[in-house]
Amino acid sequence: MDFGFSEEQLELYEAVQEFCDDVLAPKAEETDAKGEFPWDNVKQMAQMDLFGIPVPEEYGGMGLSWMDWAVVGEQLAHACTTSGAVFAAHMLCMYPIMAFGSEEQKQKYLTPLATGEKIGAMGLTEPDVGSDAGSVKTKAKLVGDEYLLNGTKIFITNGGAAETYVVIANANPEKGMRGLTAFIVEKGMEGFEIGKNEKKMGFPSVPNTELIFQDARVPRENVLGREGRGFRVAMDLLDVGRIGMAIGAVGLAQKAYDDGVAYSLVREQFGQKISEFQAIQHQIADMAMEIEAGRLLARKAAWCKDNGSPELSKIAAMAKVYTSEVCARVCNRAVNIHGGHGYICDHAVQRYLRESKLFELVEGTSEIQRNVIALEVLKEAISQRK
Amino acid sequence: MNIIVSIKQVPDTTEVRIDPVTNTLVREGVPSIINPFDENAIECGLQLVEKHGGKVTVITMGPPQAQQALKDALAMGADEAILVSDRAFAGSDTLATSYTLAQTIKKLGEYDLIICGKQAFDGDTAQVGPGLAEHLGIPQVTYAIDIEVEGKKARVKRLLSDRFEVVETRLPCLITVVKQMNEPRHASLKNVMKARKKEIPTWTAADIEADESRCGLNGSPTNVVKVFAPQRHTQGERLEGDVNDVVERLVKILREKQVV
Ligand SMILES: Cc1cc2nc3c(=O)[nH]c(=O)nc-3n(C[C@H](O)[C@H](O)[C@H](O)COP(=O)(O)OP(=O)(O)OC[C@H]3O[C@@H](n4cnc5c(N)ncnc54)[C@H](O)[C@@H]3O)c2cc1C
């Protein structure tokens, strides 16, 4: 494992950082408060070529690594959590098309997603389907050359703003999980509507909507992979999604830490800077240490993805659960360091604390990540005993 | 369109200090950047090429380190870059600089438009652009906020202190642009990667067939007598508090100073 970045990588990250400092960060607060999809940021991110980082050049991408995607994702989340969330959710749609799509599907759908001309979203969750992703109730029935989809997805990030959706439905309910099938659905296809946008604890500018399918007509050629491969597609995309969550959590944690440290260096009580109190110093030390460890784990997951490591699922789950819990702890401490001022909306740390909770819940809760990790490590242990 | 943008590398003035003892600029550790107005000039060139086709060539006269400014311009999307660098150019004032740049452009050959920033952040003379046009014998329009090109003509909107002025000129010509014209783009990942692969040729005095008596110190009639920090005006007094109270105190002060 080698995280030594080349000169070219460092130049790319520097260009992204300039963009973050000049464009995203100064209006992060406004972007959040607006409660509208951040089209302006997204257009500029597209002009910066950020969306297609790991996508091959022949499909409009940059042909760079997952590590590059991970570093940039962290930079974005640090500058503007809203933009970082859109960036990560976009990949949930783009990645499965890149990994499982046919040549025609890639030409048609992957290219505009990679250039950022179109935004993507992924729909798995339903009112009665959460952690138990295999139990998807949305049905797909083949009629002639089309599938008719019926059912409702909820909480779908980028819903409404996205024009391309990867949707998991069951085409053969008797077969249970092996009936699950992934479809590429376009906004505007007959019978497909965007439902209500949820009000949330944070991220008001990132939409989380229902996707409503009522005899929605999806052409047969829009099946991703083939019928019955939906669970595999979902599990694969969740590995990437977990890296996306991990880098977002690290970016947000770093921002909360930066704000906490900056405040501790100016706020004075009892005749000294609060950063001179050991109780504050130890909190700062813990935050710095945990963020560092989380970043290493997140980057190891990206490294696993780049190198086709069989450890990917395990490490991505570890990275996701660890960084999301670190993020929540760090944001909590950053509020503490601000004292009562941290509870006041003039400071962004209260928002960070609200936002941090997201990372522990989505794309598999912490409990589910621990299930994945336990399964993997026990498998390893058993195979070693034989 | 064949567009040439002439740029200058300058110290990031937001980070420059003046040594209080020697009264000279402290340049150590100060990062160098593209003169901010020149970024508007590059952006203007890129937009015109996006609209009308063609290419943007960026030139600069400076020490070898000025390569970085050209790299940054390439990363913004410029097609070619040329560094004009020679010991003979050291100590150039605006006359020698504009002569040297004119020689460079003559060597480059055909062009439709030369764009410069309205002035450099460090020298603030605003003379090199106009000087360059004079050396080349082409029309010049300064302080442009908008340019519309149609065939062999350009309509240029100028930002003056109290009004706009629209002028029409034939091409080729030289235009200097103001900051309000546009928002310079950021270097995209693709352009950063492209810029890394681009060779930036360095042209010497001999390459551009410059008459050395007109270059550098030899060709510079200007002498800098002194650089100093202007006396800072003392801060005014700020009255704060209840409006009625503040007004009363203000009137009192004005009376004391016998202003009213
Ligand atoms: C802001 C936001 C954005 C989202 N974006 C998307 C999206 O873009 N696409 C999408 O498809 N979904 C999305 N989701 C859905 C999200 O992935 C699910 O909410 C998440 O997977 C948890 O499912 P659930 O809410 O149904 O919780 P449940 O599964 O009902 O879980 C409830 C509790 O039970 C625990 N639990 C459940 N099963 C087990 C078990 N086997 N062992 C131990 N504990 C268990 C859970 O850990 C949790 O504590 C989003 C959700 C939110 C809030």
Helix content of chain A: 40-55%
Overall SS class of chain A: alpha+beta
Number of domains of chain A: 3
Largest interface: A-B, 17 and 10 residues
List the helices and strands and how they pair.
The complex is a heterodimer of chains A (386) and B (260).
Chain A: H1 7-24, H2 28-34, H3 39-47, H4 66-79, H5 81-100, H6 103-114, E1 120-123, E2 139-143, E3 146-157, E4 164-170, E5 180-186, E6 192-197, E7 208-219, E8 223-224, H7 230-266, E9 268-269, E10 272-273, H8 278-306, H9 312-337, H10 349-361, H11 366-385
Parallel strand pairs in A: 1-4
Antiparallel strand pairs in A: 2-3, 3-7, 4-5, 5-8, 6-7, 9-10
Chain B: E1 2-6, E2 9-11, E3 17-18, E4 25-26, E5 32-34, H1 36-52, E6 55-61, H2 67-76, E7 80-84, H3 94-108, E8 113-117, H4 128-136, E9 140-150, E10 153-159, E11 164-170, E12 173-177, H5 189-197, E13 202-203, H6 243-256
Parallel strand pairs in B: 1-6, 1-8, 6-7, 7-13, 8-12, 9-12
Antiparallel strand pairs in B: 2-5, 3-4, 9-10, 10-11
Helix pairs in contact in B: 2-5, 3-4
Bound molecules: flavin-adenine dinucleotide.
